[in-house]
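JOB MANIFEST
job_type = single_chain_structure
chain_count = 1
residues = 329
[input]
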Amino acid sequence: MKAVIINEFGGPEQLIYTDVAKPVPRDDEILVRNEIIGVGKPDYLMRSGNDPYLEDKLPGLIVGNESAGIVEAVGKNVKNIKLGDAVAVLNGTGCGSHAEYSCAEERFAIVLPKGLSPRQVPGVLNLQVAYALLYEVGRGTDGHSLYIAGAAGGIGTTLIQMAKDKGMDVIASASSEKKCAALRQVGADCVFNYKTADVKGVVLNHTNGRGVDLIYDQVCGPNFKKQFDYLADFGQIVLYNWLKGSPELDQLDTIIKRAWHGNAIRCFSFHAFDDKPERRLANAQKCFEMIRDGRVKPLVYKDLPLSEARQAHELLDAGKIIGKLIMHP
């Protein structure tokens, strides 16, 4: 079969499209004929060597951790998935999906609801993270409004749609007019370019000075504490990526001094569900029902052939993706 492998960590130039042996499922695994393959930040971490658990898999590591397709074989211990099922896979082992076929443990696969095809669920991880951010992590506030910066990616565009489906007021920003246009397309109520606008001014103006109930922060870093200036009383900041590192320790003092506002901070990683497979499965099914019912329509940036995986990763590294980038074998 065709697959994309790396023999050493590095940039997109390390990706090799080649022939490898078709995998055989173990007793607790399924074999999936992939119809779509997601490309996202976990794949960058894997390819670049920032995932500490994959070094012993070199050379010949097949990149990729999310896909959707049809089950072609099942191991003898697999109980709830059968031949011919359409499934979405978020491979907890962290690799193997940039290929025509891939194996995954049963616990990492989700059978799609009747009437939903693999091609309708691009961005398996994006869907589940967005749902968890809104319905699991975002609890404990009034929850009427939210702000998400850098919202043009797969998680952001999905989160906006889910929030609007829930009846929330959504403020979103991006780094270019093209990306801002995409945010308007998926339903955000207030959209602006965070590079040129006064974030505090825009948010407070839109909320009539009240501030926003939920802030989803994937950047963090040295400017973290500025967000408290436009967070509503009893509001919450949710950290989920730390792209610019953790806040400085002295910023804790800012939080303590604002105690009378009842603000909160929560940190989230999807690994919170690693030991909660039933909860993860239930959340995923709700995501897929939203897609089937037309309440959420994943925004696809490009659908490239697997043979162009190097181009896909170049787009990923350049930050040019709006919505979700997918590939097909």
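[summary]
DSSP finds eight helices and 16 strands in the chain.
The first helix runs from residue 41 to 48.
exit_status = 0
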